Amino acid sequence: MKYEHILIRFGELNTKGKNKKDFIIALFHNIKKVLKKFEKLEFLRAHDRIYIHLNGEDENEVIKILKEVSGIANMSLVTKTSKDITSIINVALDLALQQEVGTFKVKTTRSDKSFPYHSDEINRSVANEILNNTKHHVDVHNPDFYVKIEIRNEGAFIFSNVIKGAGGYPLGVGGKALALISGGIDSPVAIYLMMKRGVNIEAIHFASPPYTSQNAKQKVIDLLRIISNIKGGAITLHIVPFTKLQEAIYDMGDESYAITIMRRMMYRIAEGVAIKRKCLALVSGESIGQVASQTLNSMLVINNVISLPMIRPLATMDKNEIIEISKRINTYDISIRPYIDCCTIFNPVNPIIKPTLYRAEELEKRFNYEDLLQECIENIETLYIDSSLDNQFL
Ligand code: ATP
Ligand code: MG
Predict the structure, then answer these.
(1) Are residues 206 and 335 in the same domain?
(2) 380 CB under 6 A from ligand 1?
């Protein structure tokens, strides 16, 4: 039996009351966008489901892409038939005949209450037909396979499998945040997880040429292209020329505080850009205790310079858990390209693990960083990264 349709179900959207319709429209739009290359697909939006008519496109390819679309709870490859009991029984029998001999259970849901048979009656008629024409047996507790039937306004749908989706919310419904991206393993994963919650992302990268190379910048662009591609959302990237400010920090006289102060500067610039770009929060790939600048003491002192929320999706994850996600979303191989980042070049031998706010503020008084911050912001280079377009300078 060839499946002709994919039926898509929403998860947490069901709790969203009157926003639900907007969420579904956003999801519908995102699904169409990521599947644009499959020209023969047809899409239908119902009030609590989305249907895709395959029209001969490869179902496995389509499903592979849909699995990453945020806001989909699960989906099934289904056969659609007319709402008459004989057709339903025939299609269900076909489905059962394709399974290896084993135990089954028929499960019907009937949201179209005008259909003249109750779910129980349909279950019984279908099960009898299968028992009479196959070697399968019924097991209602632990069946080898299900024959599922949904009687809906749009038709009758028969299927066996349920494929897990990405969950979360449709991209765009959660507003916009500005993510700090380094080119390492963590920050792309943090961005991916934010997008899964429906948040659109702009990104900011601090580059310190000539210490950091064009390759390091390209790495960030390539990472964002991958994420933009799987999530279907364009990402605007702001590249900050950070060299002068960074040199000034290292001339300031206390190397152990260099990273603390450098990160306070990054946060200040990021917040300035975020506000200008109407982003509601900042995002980073920090994980508690991973390095000296990510202890709770460090976070307290660094975070002190901003008032926007800093979301840290990886805060509680171990490195191996983060690596696992980065491999799954195909950012890992790019992240491990060996080009140095601006944090690595000036890495002090003994960075402070428990900085104090008092000391950080005292050191910052030693140089005129305001002008340098301003210069960084004025010279930002902005790129628009959309998986379906070439990079465009804005
Ligand atoms: P990894 O830890 O795998 O090297 P990372 O991206 O976590 O990668 P860290 O040095 O741990 O890098 O930095 C912590 C966070 O600070 C990053 O996740 C990122 O959000 C931000 N960050 C660090 N360096 C930069 C940079 N050059 N530009 C923008 N953000 C940065
Ligand atoms: Mg890290």
Answers:
(1) yes
(2) no
